[in-house]
Amino acid sequence: MSKALLLENPHVEADPLLEAVGLDVHRHPGALEEDDLIDALRGVRVLGIRSATTVTSRVIAANPQLEAIGAFCIGTNQVDLRAASRHGVAVFNAPFSNTRSVVELAIGEIIALMRRLTERDRALHFGVWEKSASGAHEVRGLTLGIIGYGNIGTQLSVVAEALGMRVLFFDTAERLALGNAKRCRSMSEVLRNSDIVSLHVDGKARNAGLFGAREFAQMRRGSIFLNLSRGFVVDTAALRANIIDGHIAGAAVDVFPDEPRRNGDAFESELRGLPNVILTPHIGGSTQEAQESIAQFVGNKLATYVRTASTDMSVNLPRLTLDPSENTRFRLAYVHRNTPGVLALVNQAFAEHGANIEGQILGTAGETGYMITDLSSQLPDEVLEALRGMDDTIRLRVLERQRR
Ligand SMILES: NC(=O)c1ccc[n+]([C@@H]2O[C@H](COP(=O)([O-])OP(=O)(O)OC[C@H]3O[C@@H](n4cnc5c(N)ncnc54)[C@H](O)[C@@H]3O)[C@@H](O)[C@H]2O)c1
User: Fold this and answer.
1) pLDDT tens across 249-287, in order?
2) Atom of ligand 1 nearest to the CA of 170
């Protein structure tokens, strides 16, 4: 029986999905360091990780039987994706399974900041009764400015409008405005016209330092700032200065430039101890519902890849899905180097052996090509060996279609 190894405790919803495609699921609670991971992967076809396991080029090269990696999280920086492609290993993640969790936290924080809840709460815990409407506002009728109108930004827009807020947004890409949200032509247009600004840009390197002193200065005096995207996007020293000065009336920050690796590690930040500032340890997407949804999403992608070779939503291989025809008996899934003439050579081998092609699809992504070919009969072993031996071949899988 082939084996799947799940590290870092993804939700158990993943296990039956993998077992249903014939994988024997093994679990290890924590992350593994490089050498231990290399050893643990012996005989493993499918690896599941979360964000604390680094999958290096060495790990991938040392385990040629490894076919797929599931990142049971959003980011895939922890996997050497180029090495994965070079070795024909498909990588999947869950890009939107925790979207709603982030949105709900942002909404909760906007209300909490507008009512200065953390201050009222702290005073009462210290035995001080401070009943006052001073500095407390409803969110209804306020303007929320969203920077980055992707999966999270758009959903935040919809929920905020349901609370009676006006929404302005800026995105560098063309995005459809949902509901009554208004698209702005620049980030500064959003900043100048919003009571609350929330960042939801992606974590690409070009967004490092996107938001600093200049951007805070463009925000309205007394406005609220949220960052639940990536820590390096914001200049935290500038945020601190603006909070102390009172230009920014409150902030919620869930992500930091330097985040501790483990629970219990010390947290250092210049944002500690500031009034009306909510600090959370990167938990925007951390809910039971999100964990379950991630396990279902990634578990399904891995299981489908094992069963059908479909790379739908893979983060590194060309994304291909091919519906088999009635006569399909065998499927060849061929990962190869993206060089001219490979397809012709492969199809020549099929033609020479009278293979009847029922369906075929090809895609390329950078240096890697992927082709799925459906056949009505099996190719002789020597043809498969010849294909495997071709210079540009990275990986060839043969899948037999199960008759019902
Ligand atoms: N706090 C958490 O726990 C948590 C959980 C999930 C996601 N996130 C982070 O939230 C962010 C948004 O996630 P998503 O799923 O919505 O991503 P997404 O890729 O769907 O959306 C990002 C959007 O930002 C836009 N964008 C990028 N750079 C921009 C810029 N400089 N100015 C304006 N728009 C810009 C993109 O065009 C895109 O529409 C990511 O950084 C992600 O890592 C955090």
Assistant:
1) 999 999 999 998 778 999 999 999 999 999 999 999 999
2) 33
Q: Which among 389, 372, 386 has a CA at the least distance from the CA of 334?
A: 372
The CATH architecture one would assign to domain 99-286 is 3-Layer(aba) Sandwich (3.40)
The first and second tokens of residue 155, run together, are 């959903």
115 labelled catalytic: no
284 lines ligand 1 (CB under 6 A): yes
Cα 285 to ligand 1 centroid, rounded to whole Å: 13
Pairing of strands 368-375, 44-49: unpaired
CATH entry 3.40.50.720 includes domain 2-96+289-308: yes
User: 277-320 pLDDT, tens per residue?
Assistant: 999 999 999 999 999 999 999 999 999 999 999 999 999 999 99
Q: Is the separation of the CB atoms in 285 and 74 below 8 Å? A: yes
Same fold, 2-96+289-308 and 99-286: yes
pLDDT digits (tens, 9 = 90+) for 363-388: 999 999 999 999 998 888 888 998 99
